[in-house]
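Hi team,

Below is the intake form for diphosphomevalonate decarboxylase from Oceanobacillus chungangensis. Please confirm the fields before the structure is written into the shared record.

FORM ID: S-0412
PROTEIN: diphosphomevalonate decarboxylase
ORGANISM: Oceanobacillus chungangensis
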Amino acid sequence: MKATARAHTNIALIKYWGKREEALILPTNNSLSLTLDGFYTTTTVDFREALSQDVFMLNDEAVTGEAYQRVTKFLDLIRGLSGKTDLYANVHSINEVPTAAGFASSASGFAALAAAGAKAIGLNLSDQELSRLTRQGSGSACRSIYGGFAEWEMGTRQDGSDSYAVPIASKEHWDIRVAAVVLSSTMKKVSSRAGMKRTVETSPFYPGWIESIPNDLNGIKAGIQEKDFEKVGAIAEANCLKMHATTLGANPPFTYWHDTTLRVMHTVQEMRANGIPAYFTIDAGPNVKVLYLPEDEARVEETLRNIAGVTDVRLSKAGSGITYL
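The structure came back. Fields below:
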């Protein structure tokens, strides 16, 4: 009862920021992402009758505390679906993503865990069922079931049965590139979950954010189908700025940005002014992702690497969905 799966992380172009229901991780809005080939998690789940509890190893180190509890609670969902509630697992994950620094490590992590765990215990889930299951571990992870562009539909049902991701366009549809600009790989002070909750409950800017989403979604989906880079980039960048504005209105206010984050943002805008089409987006962390086209890769990478405070630039193409190894 053993399986290994690999999942890639994704970058949200239309952000998920806020839950309408905490326990089931049901979002307040639809979101849309691009799966990236450069960041991924490979996870092996091995259910064994001899075990009396789950064991979780991440990058060859035993995990305890809150991170362990999230994993074993998620394995409980898999055990419940299979009816094999007395089986425990050895879980071994290798994470090629900086953890808790705004690179969506939980997205690839829980997607790989869901896929490997479900396969190991004998569940035969469709992509939709796997996405719905994965959502209950980490919301953004439900989009990593698919390669290319995917949309997480928020759904309306209280049980979450209509809240899952659907594919929008395959990775072969459009060769769009993403440079992940690494400023910090340290753990952020305010987690995504805590920041999201505080913003929903206290920020007066939050209702305006929600009202803007349908128009952004319609526009960016049209841009993806038309392969209109300027349209997609402009909408993604504006959507990112609106999301981060809500955190400044929270009580107490907070931001995920560092001074170098702002330097990267300004540099990207300068590149555009100089004729290089590039746009930024930022998740809940200080690190910046820059969208660009293949023909501009060398110039974009060189410019980003020369910014003071940038420690690395990692280049990605559109990535694949779940694969089994």
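SUMMARY LINE: The mean pLDDT is 94.

Thanks, M.
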